[in-house]
Specification:
By secondary structure, the protein is of the alpha/beta class. It has nine helices and 23 strands. Strands 1, 2, 3, 4, 5, 21, 22 and 23 form an eight-stranded mixed sheet that branches. Strands 6, 9, 10, 11, 12, 13 and 14 form a seven-stranded parallel sheet that branches. Strand 9, helix 2 and strand 10 form a beta-alpha-beta unit.
């Protein structure tokens, strides 16, 4: 049970529209009870214990859903500890994230299994952002596009290994990144469909034709678009070209302005249906870390002046981002993307793609996962299942 709360004098960004001069009611079930214009406030009769919060013109939005994140605050999935996953949960709430999918690196099988098990163990004990389930980045990926993944963990398609990884998740594995060009990928894709696993094309050297074949067997999503995938060429559109050309293909995008140039993000929004674009962070363990040495997936890293982590051994290797979902939203709004579109990318779309029940929008009957941002997009408050997790209204 949660406390009844009414947020008044706000602009409600529902996930499909922006409603000015409105209020939002959170009921005792931790759900959205109503959204109404402030002119109707006097008509409403709320129980006497209802908390009234004047948000003073702030945006009232769905809590962010980070569907691809390896770590934050010095906690990471590579720690293979439930306590680290719970540390991620608490730190993510500081940046408006109501739910997330801890993402497991490609690594030796034992390490991947241990990481999966730690995520499952942590679920249900969160003090911050909810753990939605497990995101597996590999291990059936291309050595030609391995990026910052551990090459020793890269495997050819193996259905027994796939089942072993999924079984370790006890029904909590939601998705897996794969290279569609690999031999026996069709069999894997059909098995993934049986087991309700969303496959993403990523860390792939696929040709355009490989991506078409992947789509024919159900691979319609893609991992951190433009990064770790075959490039666009006028004689072979590659993975990048296929995702741009095929409007049905969905894609993650890291909106830090580094991994993908802002003008390319804006081009993507012009060329692809908004419903098929998902904002992610791909953030690493040292993101927003307060003290200590910076390590990501066992690799020494440094935070570049542009905000991305690079390998200390190979300055040309992007290891991942230091982005938060809150900063990602600020970035795209600064790039002149309407805030309601930014909200769809950061909440509504991942909820739909991963079949998250009653999440990602502010609609009566949906879970009251709500972030409140002032006009400068600074966080004022975060509700998760109707409970006020972060209170900065004072």
């Amino acid at each position: 049970m949660s406390l009844r709360t009414v947020l008044t004098n706000g602009t409600v960004v529902t996930g499909y529209a922006k409603l000015k001069n409105c209020a939002l009611y959170i009921n005792e079930e931790g759900e959205i009870g109503d959204i109404f214009n402030m002119r109707r406030l006097e008509e409403k009769h709320f129980p006497p214990d209802t908390i009234m919060i004047d948000v003073q013109g702030s945006y009232i939005m769905p809590g962010f859903i980070d569907s691809h994140i390896h770590g934050i605050g010095g906690f990471g999935t590579e720690d293979c500890k439930a306590s680290s996953i719970l540390g991620m949960s608490e730190r993510l709430a500081d940046f408006g994230v109501s739910a997330f999918m801890p993402t497991v690196y490609t690594d030796k099988l034992d390490a991947m299994l241990a990481s999966i098990q730690s995520i499952v163990e942590a679920m249900g004990s969160e003090q911050g952002a909810k753990i939605l389930g497990v995101n597996l980045e590999g291990p059936f990926i291309s050595m030609a596009r391995v990026g910052a993944q551990n090459p020793e963990g890269v495997l050819p398609v193996n259905l027994d290994v796939f089942n072993q990884l999924i079984d370790a998740g006890k029904g909590k594995v939601l998705c897996m990144t794969v290279a569609p060009e690999l031999k026996h990928m069709r069999e894997l894709a059909l098995l993934a469909r049986e087991r309700n696993i969303v496959l993403l094309a990523g860390h792939t050297d696929a040709t355009y034709e490989n991506i078409m074949e992947g789509m024919q067997c159900g691979i319609f999503h893609s991992t951190h678009f433009f990064n770790a995938m075959s490039r666009l060429h006028h004689r072979n559109p590659g993975t990048v070209g296929a995702i741009l050309i095929q409007r049905e293909m969905q894609c993650e995008i890291i909106c830090d302005g580094i991994h993908v140039h802002p003008e390319l993000v804006k081009m993507l929004l012009r060329e692809k249906p908004l419903d098929n674009i998902v904002m992610i962070t791909d953030s690493l363990k040292p993101t927003k870390q307060r003290t200590g040495s910076l390590k990501a997936n066992g690799m020494d890293v440094t935070l570049g002046s542009d905000g991305a982590f690079i390998s200390t051994k190979d300055p040309n290797l992007f290891v991942g981002s230091g982005l938060t979902m809150l900063q990602g939203l600020k970035n795209v709004v600064e790039w002149e993307v309407p805030i309601q579109q930014a909200s769809q990318m950061s909440s509504t779309n991942p909820a739909r793609i991963y079949n998250l029940s009653k999440q990602g929008m502010l609609v009566p009957g949906y879970k009251a996962d709500v972030v409140v941002l002032d006009q400068n997009l600074q966080m004022k408050g975060l509700f998760i299942d109707g409970n006020l997790i972060r209170d900065r209204f004072a």
